[in-house]
Specification:
The complex is a heterodimer of chains A (about 425) and B (about 250).
Chain A lengths: L1 H6 L9 H17 L15 H4 L4 E2 L7 H8 L5 E6 L2 E2 L13 E5 H7 L4 H4 L10 H8 L5 E5 L9 E7 L9 E3 L2 E6 L4 E10 L5 E11 L4 E9 L5 E10 L4 E8 L4 E10 L5 E10 L4 E10 L5 E10 L4 E10 L7 E10 L5 E10 L5 E9 L3 H8 L5 H17 L5 H22 L1
Parallel strand pairs in A: 1-7, 2-6, 5-8, 6-9, 7-10, 8-10, 9-11, 10-12, 11-13, 12-14, 13-15, 14-16, 15-17, 16-18, 17-19, 18-20, 19-21
Antiparallel strand pairs in A: 2-3, 4-5
Chain B lengths: L1 E10 L2 E11 L4 E5 L6 H9 L4 E10 L2 E2 L5 H6 L2 E4 L6 E5 H15 L7 H14 L5 H4 L1 E2 L5 H15 L3 E5 L7 H14 L5 E6 L3 H5 L4 E6 L2 E6 L1 H21 L1
Parallel strand pairs in B: 3-10, 3-11, 6-9, 9-10
Antiparallel strand pairs in B: 1-2, 1-4, 4-5, 7-8, 11-12
The chains are: A alpha/beta (about 425), B alpha/beta (about 250).
Chain lengths: ~425, ~250
């Protein structure tokens, strides 16, 4: 706690007044609240004391494994952008030819030079009072990436942001980074953005990311959150999106890494006729803890939302799913659907699943369903009776289970990579349990 | 090929099979008949290795190997196939993908090269024609949303592709209309040969008009009470099971 608190508020000194102000305010807020504890409703099942008790050092500069890590997950045909230890790494990004209508801004340089669009949007999509880790990130506000899509631009090339945390000094204190991304999609634009998180396998570090997304009128943004952190890592991400009238926002979260993961994905439908998809699949094995908190704010009428989360738990893993949907008084004709399903592959794995609907309008359609179960043994036997081993049968069923979410990945290269990573992660579990 | 000696099987806490003896030679077709609850399906499922069917006594030799010692998937790869009475629906698992994986698992066991998608499709197209199965069934999820007839046809289709040495047909005729029954039976008959044996479990002799057995066995209360040739099935049709059970008991 002291180590992280000590680095709070230390940003680049050339930052303009508005950045320093937002940073200081967040620093003050975090100094007041500190790390969340399990007495807080939102953190009841997720004990972050391993993070609070670790003396992290603020990560800075690049490291020798950064380039190979990024190359290992790069997507052919995508526009690659890199964040290394919280800083925009232009040398590891592909900025030679930007697709039409795409503007990329390094946050530090952009803020210093007064780049358009930063001041109105940065640190504006969420309240630092209710998101302590996002406050901690904002207290370190310094660098990162902003992606601006011009009004009407149909961007065919997927944008791929790769975020890495790490260092070269062996045996040094664990590092912490606070990556920051801002995505602003102009009216009627269309863009697909993948965001991959990786680190050196085995490393212990904290990645505490904040991603803000502003979806303009009639714009369409697909955001793919791809968490493949080191198995020793602590991974916190706050994804906060504002969607204007007739805008469409889809988030697809894929998680197979980290020791502790906490995702807060908040979407505010702020204009009539907006639409949101929030899907995710996670594989928690070993002693992993994977926590997903989603929050949907139906603020306006005639909006639709579809939420599907699927979890596979093995070993002694724990998962938390909390799906909050607020339908405000004015949000008539809301159509919201939430589904959360989990498969427990071992007796020692646990999940806390909690749908949380708060409906204030009277003419709405809201459904939610949660199911926790085991692999269907009749299906297992059927597959085995045709010659598949138990492991092959299990993998086929798990693949089918995850497939519903993976099928939503509309970047084929990413989908291929995720499927491969998923199968590799399943094999990891076999090694652990056999 | 198959030698069953004094097989006793328990399901949950009930003993269902109370000592079955049966010898099946290469190329033979044996029909197992009997009233509901006699243990017909239990016999087929125990041979396929279903974990819910606990063998408490007896021995099953398959080509000289201890069949009961093998996992269900080993049995399958060694050439034992069961056509399920109730084929399981598996959403999200592509029928063709699954069947290719099953075929390649068996080929690997036999030391053969695995088939790629192209070669696999060549094998499959032939079999589809024989069974009057539409290509589209390949691309659907395994049994999901299939009609009763489609499910049974899909089972026989899997059998045709996997070319087992011993096929167990567990009430394959149940739920089939007369046309589907004919198609399924033709599929089975097309596969009969000197190297392949069948155990056909059925309640009705109707199926045996199409799949003509070499031997018929009547099961009652977990035991084979009568064995005979094809004519036994016809006699059963005429007189029903009641008489047989009594006949068996008298012996």
């Amino acid at each position: 706690m002291e180590a992280l608190a000590a680095s709070v508020g230390q940003g680049h000194s050339q930052a303009p007044a508005w950045v320093r102000e937002r940073r200081d305010q967040a620093a003050k807020q975090f100094a007041q609240t500190g790390f969340p504890n399990t007495r807080l409703e939102e953190w009841r099942f997720t004990n972050v004391s391993p993070i609070a008790d670790t003396k992290f050092q603020l990560a800075a500069g690049t490291f020798s494994n950064a380039a190979p890590l990024i190359a290992g997950v790069s997507l052919p045909g995508a526009l690659q952008l890199a964040i290394v230890n919280g800083q925009f790494a232009a040398d590891l990004s592909d900025l030679r030819v930007l697709p039409k209508g795409v503007r990329i801004v390094g946050l530090r340089d952009g803020a210093r030079d007064g780049a358009d669009g930063l001041e109105p949007h940065l640190a504006k999509t969420f309240s630092i009072d209710t998101h302590p880790f996002a406050a901690l990130n904002t207290a370190h506000l310094d660098d990162g990436i902003a992606v601006f899509i011009a009004s009407g631009a149909m961007v065919e090339t997927p944008i791929h942001i790769v975020t890495v945390t790490g260092g070269d000094a062996a045996g040094a204190a664990p590092l912490a980074s606070h990556p920051r991304v801002l995505i602003v999609a102009g009216a009627n634009s269309h863009v697909r953005i993948a965001h991959t998180f990786v680190g050196t396998p085995g490393d212990v570090y904290l990645t505490n990311a904040v991603v803000e997304v502003v979806v303009g009128d009639g714009a369409n943004v697909e955001y793919y959150l791809d968490q493949r952190e080191s198995e020793g890592a602590y991974h916190i991400a706050n994804i906060q999106a504002h969607v204007a009238a007739k805008g469409v926002f889809a988030s697809h979260a894929f998680s197979i890494g980290a020791r502790i993961q906490r995702h807060d994905i908040g979407v505010a439908l702020k204009g009539e006729g907006a639409d949101c998809t929030m899907n995710g699949v996670y594989l928690a094995d070993g002693e992993r803890l994977m926590d997903t908190h989603t929050a949907l704010d139906h603020a306006m009428p005639h909006c639709t939302s579809h939420e599907l989360y699927k979890g596979i738990l093995a070993g002694k893993a724990r998962a938390v799913f909390n799906g909050r949907i607020v339908v405000r008084l004015d949000a008539q004709k809301t159509d919201a659907k939430q589904t959360n399903r989990a498969l427990l592959l071992s007796d020692d794995a646990t999940i806390n699943s909690n749908p949380q609907l708060e409906i204030f309008a009277d003419d709405v359609k809201c459904t939610h369903g949660a199911a926790v179960g085991q692999l269907d043994e009749e299906a297992m036997f059927y597959l085995q009776a045709r010659g598949l081993t138990r492991i092959e049968a299990r993998d086929l069923l798990l693949h089918a289970f995850a497939g519903e979410v993976l099928d939503g990945v509309k970047i084929p290269e990413l989908r291929d990579q995720l499927e491969t990573a998923f199968f590799r992660a399943l094999a990891r579990d076999v090694q652990l349990t056999s | 090929m198959l030698e069953v000696t004094n097989l006793k099987v328990r399901v949950e806490d009930r003993e269902i099979l109370k000592g079955i003896n049966l010898t099946v030679k290469k190329g033979e077709v044996h029909a197992i008949m009997g009233p509901n609850g006699s243990g017909k399906s239990t016999f087929a499922r125990a041979l396929s290795g279903h974990p819910g069917y606990e063998v408490t006594e007896g021995q099953v030799l398959y080509n000289g190997q201890d069949l009961l010692d093998m996992d269900p998937d080993e049995r399958a790869r060694e050439g034992v196939f069961m056509a399920f009475q109730y084929p399981v629906e598996i959403p999200g698992v592509n029928n063709a993908y699954f069947l290719k994986a099953a075929l390649n698992a068996k080929r690997k066991q036999q030391g053969l090269d695995e088939l790629d998608a192209m070669d696999f499709m060549k094998v499959v197209k032939e079999k589809l024609k024989v069974l009057h199965i539409d290509d589209s069934m390949l691309q659907r999820s395994v049994n999901e949303g299939f009609s009763g007839g489609e499910k049974k046809r899909n089972e026989i289709f899997h059998m045709a592709v996997l070319e087992p040495a011993l096929a167990l047909l567990d009430e394959t005729d149940s739920g089939l209309d007369i046309d589907a029954l004919r198609v399924v039976s033709e599929g089975v008959n097309a596969m009969r040969g000197p190297e392949r044996s069948f155990i056909v479990v059925t309640h009705y002799q109707r199926l045996l008009n199409y799949i003509v057995p070499d031997y018929v066995h009547v099961l009652s209360d977990g035991r084979i009470v009568r064995s005979g040739g094809r004519e036994l099935a016809l006699e059963l049709e005429e007189k029903g099971y009641a008489g047989q059970v009594a006949a068996g008991a008298r012996r």
